[in-house]
Specification:
By secondary structure, the protein is mainly β. Helix content is about 0%, strand content about 55%. It contains no helices and 11 strands. The strands form 2 sheets. Strands 2, 4, 5, 6, 9, 10 and 11 form a 7-stranded mixed β-sheet that branches. A 4-stranded antiparallel β-sheet has the order 1-3-8-7, with no helix packed on it. The mean pLDDT is about 95.
């Protein structure tokens, strides 16, 4: 069992920055990938960025060059540094974990609002 808690969301002006954190607990030794998703108003949940235990990263095209995903040395916390935020980045951001090719946990989400 894996439990996830996201934090770091808030209100920011366009062009600003936020850093989200995803803390996993439980059977974290089985995690092979962690990812950030987001769900904007009236939209489905979409992948934002992912990182494997080996450090491989992947980004969705809309956030490439602006967002950076990283993990700590203990592999139980993943961060999402979001720079040059745009209004279209407004969404609830969720973190999830994958073990042996299957999603094992979702967090409750953290709200990111980009508005002037």
């Amino acid at each position: 069992q894996v439990q996830i808690v996201e934090s770091g969301g808030g209100l920011v002006q366009p062009g600003g920055s936020l850093r989200l954190s995803c803390a996993a607990s439980g059977r974290t030794s089985q995690i092979d990938c962690m990812a950030w998703y987001r769900q904007g108003p009236g939209k489905g949940r979409e992948l934002v960025a992912s990182i494997t235990i080996g450090g491989q990263t992947d980004y969705a095209d809309p956030v490439k060059g602006r967002f950076i995903i990283s993990r700590d040395s203990g592999k139980d916390t993943v961060n999402l540094q979001m720079n040059s935020l745009k209004p279209e980045d407004k969404a609830v951001y969720y973190c999830n974990t994958v073990s042996y090719g299957a999603v094992t946990a979702w967090g409750q989400g953290t709200q990111v609002t980009v508005s002037s």
